[in-house]
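Methods, example record. To illustrate the input and output format used throughout this study, we show the complete record for Epithelial splicing regulatory protein 2. The sequence lines were provided to the predictor; the line carrying structure tokens was produced by it.
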Amino acid sequence: SLVVLFGATAGAYGAKLGSDERELILLVWQVVDLHSKKVGTLHKSLVKADNLDLSDQCREISGLTAEGLGKAEPLDRVLQQFSQLVSSDLKVLGRSSYTLCSDGQLLIRQVLHPETSKKNFLLSDCFYSFYDLRKEFHTCYPSSAAVKDQTIKTMAEYLGLGTDEAEEDFGVWQVKTMVAIIFSMLSEGCNHIFTEPETVKYKYETGPCSKSETVDSETVIRARGLPWQSSDQDIARFFKGLNIAKGGVALCLNSQGRRNGEALVRFVNSEQRDLALERHKHHMGSRYIEVYKATGEEFLKIAGGTSNEVAQFLSKENQVIIRMRGLPFTATQEDVLGFLGPECPVTGGKEGLLFVKYPDGRPTGDAFVLFSCEEYAQNALKKHKEILGKRYIELFRSTAAEVQQVLNRYMSTPLIPTLPTPIIPVIPPPYTIATGSIRDCVRLRGLPYTAGIDDILEFMGDATGDIKPHGVHMVLNQQGRPSGDAFIQMKSADKAFMVAQKCHKKMMKDRYVEVFQCSGEEMNFVLMGGTLNRSGLSPPPCKLPCLSPPAYAAFQTAAVIPAEAAALYQPQALLPTTRTPQASAAAPPTVTYYPAQAAQLYMNYTAYYPSPPVSPTTVGYIAAPPGAVAAAATATHTPILPQPGALVRMQGLPYNTGMKEILSFFQGYQYAPDDYNGLIQLSDQARSVLQAPKEWVCL
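The corresponding predicted structure is encoded as:
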């Protein structure tokens, strides 16, 4: 038997049904016995929605009113009545089982499943399997219109059935016409058999994904704006009613290994993906979620893995994964199992634990744990921020894709001692950022986030020639992204005044940019992390000097100067003398490293805001072009480290640590004698490259 089902919401109708998140207000159904071709009683039931504000389209098409719906039963009661009445009609017809049949998939997938999920009650099993009348009709009549273009009216017109909707109430005509279409398909000329129903997955299945898999780009979407604590199950619940592929939810992580509010979701086919796109700006709690198309390459980049250890760990399917963060580096498997306790047993004991390590085997403080059921996982999450050893441990829900991402990130990290390929060193310019009160700088506010140095130079127009060398400073926020602000050092206060007058509120791309005259002192405050507003200067969070461009003195080599840059400086400025520990030893000059395009006069990208504390990875190097490598090969280089072990790195220092505390810490050890320049405090840019908090390098 079939139960022909039709419904309507308080909002959009037809092809957009369910796309606006409006609630169900009408259900109409009738039982059809496919063998005897008999029908049961036609039932129509109004549904009381939480929001009775009907759209104009809904009022016009359905003829329903808020007053009438206010007297109806809520959805959970209506669904109970539905089950009872269907069972009664089946008993009269001598049948016991049935399958739903609806006009398309929107009512089941985009309305009933999402709404009941949000209202926290379960649908009966009959709503997880149904026939799509449009697909069945096209199978029976291949010459008819495409499935996506079918409607009840076009199918009836194709068969020559009556299509006067005004003769019946809204919903009643639709169900009666659908029943007539089904009987036509069952006639001797067609003898159509309903054999392959559409299915809705009961729950999301976790599982690993290999980088060698082929992922169709027509099945992947990107969800943006997710709560940071959301799990793969939360995302699957947001897409309730749609079939997500096994292991198809990949939560994206930022450069610090934390979730960034985005996820890539892979569906079983393109039809499900297209339905998912209709949930753009639907809500997860109080947040709306943006849904966009994505590619299979993007999904594999996030979710794919190659590690056999990870594959073996994730081979246990349908497990709940919990991520532990902040473990002591000395923690063992027994320590973790003891921390979790008997109330949340780990699947497979020690085999259900996966410690994340660096390539050299050092622990990162992260681990993943498998639990066989939701109850055990919930018990484990209750231990969030409890103490293990002397550290509190953070516990979060995780996914198979996050396991792959974290392992890929750490295992692909080269060791710090690994030296780079030859790089282009550029001598630091013989000037420093102005620190006085002379107002020879301008501040640009409201820049497009995509604006670069070239855009600013174009924006400045003829005034570009009045900019000091390396005088354009892009200000980045704490996430390392453009903040929309920039500072420019002009050759004089008059030039800065003229630029502010000429360029204020001038358009750059689709935004106007504000231009203010300011002093070098004010600029330094902002570049060091302070704020500049109408009420005056707010001091930066730290008093450390922020040089531009910063020098990283740990690596020294012979200077290679672009020809066009050499003309800008005097010969004595190119090779400045440096104070040496011993009078007889001559040290090479300290150099600053820039990309090849750094020969441009104005370039100066620097993250001036302090980087957030994260796990250190490695020093980033910039590879030289082939020509520079060949030139460097013919030059005589001074060894980077003249003696093995001459350089040590300190991490985890208090932020108020000074030179005195460093020297006291190393009391009893011999460092570079009589030369406190052996203590090199890393600038903000160098610290952001190292991706670690405040550090010192000792020679």
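Annotations derived from this record:
The CA atoms of residues 462 and 495 lie 11 Å apart.
The chain has a mean pLDDT of 78.
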